[in-house]
Amino acid sequence: MKTFLFTLILFVSTAAFARLNVAVSYPYIGAITKAVGADKVDVTVLAKGNWDPHFVVARPSLISKLRRSDALIINGAQLEIGWIPPLIKRANNRNILPGTKGFLDLSASIEMIQKPSSVSRAGGDVHPDGNPHFHLAPQNILILARSVTAFLSTLDPLNRDSFEQNLQDFELLWTKEMLKWAATMASAKNRKVIEYHQNFDYFLQAYDIKGIATIEPLPGIPPSSRHTMELIDTIKTQKPCCIIHDVYHSTKTATYLHDKTGIKVVIMPHDIGALDSIESLSQLFDYLTSKFP
Ligand SMILES: [Zn+2]
Q: How far is the CA of 199 from the centre of ligand 1 (A)?
């Protein structure tokens, strides 16, 4: 009886202190999950922040990371369509299967913009469900943090109070940061910009900035000379302030447009780690707001 009780206590205490091993697709999800999960959760980030989020290589090291996970959180809206489904298939881990309680698709909690009216890829190759880069609106980070909190609480109900408390602390901090960023961005209102890809549309929308064109003719379609010539006209007539460029596409066309029109080209990070100096979510938005031309 004594041995049984001892074993039972040991089992219960181990269960109480076992940390959830949560895999996430992108660094920004890792940061939200760490903020809410804190010391109760181990987070494994699959993709690096300076990679093109649409085209991650499903390498074997990522399969073994997924094999060990208790849960998986993805961005969704088909951003990971080329790499997460093959990884899940090869990881052969029942804990993280879509539709189970160990799988969270963040896009389900977000009001998406640029949703195509027809179910085809005619609006571009990589955004068939609408624009999936919703984490770049700071107010969406709060929605995502609540979604992650509910998810972790379902997986680990014993630590629900801790997750809820961490969420409250995060919300307080983030709301203060949002006021600071809004103040910094007030003078940029109604400015016009060109992007390489529609990476920053949620960010632009958050601060009433107009994205008037992209260097890609359609999402995921590389620049063509005809479209580039049209852009030169757009720049001359509409006078956008700048080209906002991601870190992972070639700046060849942007440089060409700069040479032809004098337009400023600004490299902007889309995630933590996109630039070496960006190590947190706050630093990401500090950078985006302070470097915005
Ligand atoms: Zn995209």
A: 6
